[in-house]
Each structure stands twice: as structure tokens, then as C-alpha cells.
Amino acid sequence: MKKVIFGITGLTLGGAERVLVDLANELSKKYDITIFTIYAGGELEKELNDKVKLKSIYDVSYKQLSKIQKLTIPLKLLFRKNKIYKKYIKENYDVEIAFLEGPITRLFSVKNDKVNKIAWIHNDISFVFGDGFKAKLKRKIDNKSYSKYKTLIFVSKENLNNFNKTYPNIKVNKKVIYNYINKDNIIKKANMYEPNEIDLNNKNFLTVARLVSQKGIDRIIEVHSKLIRQGLKHYFYVIGDGPEKEKLEKLIKENNVEETFILLGKKENPYPYIKKVEYFCLFSKFEGYGMVLEEAKILNKNILITNTAAREAVEGYNKAIITENTEDGIYNVMKEKIEEEKQNENHKQEIDNGEKIIKEIITLIESGE
Description:
Layout: E1 3-8, H1 15-27, E2 32-39, E3 53-58, H2 67-79, H3 81-88, E4 95-98, H4 103-108, E5 116-121, H5 133-147, E6 151-154, H6 157-166, E7 173-176, H7 183-190, E8 203-208, H8 217-229, E9 234-239, H9 245-254, E10 261-265, H10 271-276, E11 279-282, H11 291-298, E12 302-306, E13 320-323, H12 327-339, H13 354-367
Parallel strand pairs: 1-2, 1-4, 2-3, 4-5, 5-6, 6-7, 8-9, 8-11, 9-10, 11-12, 12-13
Helix pairs in contact: 8-12
């Protein structure tokens, strides 16, 4: 039985993290699977089945670290990566898969000719680091890191194209594999309970996202506030947590929309909320693919998104609208939906590519191509 190790920062509440848990559980039927995290204590750890092993460098979560540790640990991971790799990983596995951009990809890039090394890229690499000296330094480091992998996997075609523009000299194998999702698991979780926060007497919109600049929650607040001032009553709910929480709470208060724009915080099971709302939204400034859109499709939701790489997730799905990636674009599509009659929910579209994706990943593990 082949031994496969997946690396990720931590099994917190995120799209890539949920994909990895489902993927590891499924692949453990065929392989000896280990998930290696930098930080322990992620909320999704308890969803791993008994066959999946879990190893961590630090036995605390990222949130439990001091400010100094948050600054020094990434540097340790970079400058002592050979020592850390030798201690935790080297010569123990047949396949090593760095499942997220950043520190784990740099760590798993340590040279080991005996191993099939694979890196997963979930985000649009041309945007993810921003600009400035720090961004240029990270790109230079990652140019060397990605070059050491046998295969790079992208979750969308646009991500692959933008990666090639950012790193034109990296000539390793590259392939697009859409994210795996356990359809039955999503439906089961969606029916676990009935959330009482959603007001069904008005149009309601919901997004599930980390509270970071990329997700554009600040501009959604501005659009929502403008629509409310125009007398277009609706509710907008946000599930998630992140570093911009205080900033967003302040913006909500400044716009006097505390009653109608509601930060629900993080939810280990967001699916009952997605099931209950009328519209699921992903109004990001940029996206890798938007895994949560696959989940919303399984739950047969009306979907509204901005024009990012996430559009690949809704291709062929007839209940999705892609709008211009601006505040005006978001305003126009929300205004249209608030003003029109309630959507007809009768038609249903089955979404299930899980088996095909698993076969692609098994081929990748067996051959590395």
C-alpha cells in the first residue's frame, strides 16, 4: 500500500481544508494517508476518519500563537526547512502533496529524488501575494520551490494560465483537476438543523468566506447600504471569520445596517444556512475556483458571483449569474434580484463529478502525471 502525505497549514474552516478532509477520507480506502499540518487544533480535524493519520509541527492552533510567534515561525519554516523536513517527512512516504500555497509548499519542496512530489494551487497566484517588496521576495522564493515538484495541480484553467504568466520559466508537469466534493455528505449536513437567524419574509443573500480583503466584504456592505437607503429591503448574511472582522463591524455600524447586514461568525456546518437562503453569493475580488459554489450547486441554490476564475465552477449551471467585478456590478445584480418576484425553485440540476475526480487523483498518485 502506497504511503501518501498531504501537507496544509492547518485543518481550519476553509474551502481547501474541507476538500482535503473529504479527499483524504476517500483515498484512505486505497492508500495509507497522513495529513501533515503546521498548526494543530483545526476544527475539521474531527471529521477525519480513523484510517487517516494526523501529524503537526506545533500542537496549538495559529490563533493561540503570540504576535512574536506569528512573525518568527514562518521564518523558521523557511530557513530551517531542511531540518524540519528531515525530522517529520523524509524517507517515510511514496508521495508528498503540498495542498496549499505558501509555507507548506516551500517545506515540501526540499529535494528528495525518491519521492513523487506534487503541489496543489488553489488560488490565483497572480493576485495572492499583492505587490511590494515582500510580494516580490515571496514570488522569487516560490519560483524555486515550485520548480522542484514533479507535478503542479490547479483547480481552474484560469489559475493555470495566470501561474504560467507569473512563472513562465517553470517547466514541470501541470494539470487542472477540479476540487473533489462528497455530495452525500453535504446533503446530510444541510439537513442536520434549521437555522433560526434567516428572515424568510424578505429577500436574503448569503456568502461563506474568510473575512479578508480578497473576498470583498467591504464593498458588499457599501452596496447593501445603498440598496437599503433606496428602500429595497433585504438581508445579507456572512458566515466566516478573519482579520478584517473589526474593520467590517465598524463599516456596518457607520452605515447603520446592523439589523440587515449580519456577520454570523464561523460555522463548522454552514450548509443549513446555504440551504435556507434564496441567493448564495461569492462577490470576491479574485478567486481560485470557489469550492463553496460546488456546495451551493449541490443544494440547488440561486448563485450570484463576480467575474473571477470562480466562473468555471458555475459553467453549465443554469441558476447562476456572473456579474461585473465592481461595486456597480454587485449593485446591479442585487437590485435586480430584490425587485423581481421570488425565484421558482422547481427545477433541479444534479451535480456530481466526485467519482471522475477521484480517478484522476489516483492516476496522479500512481504515475505523478
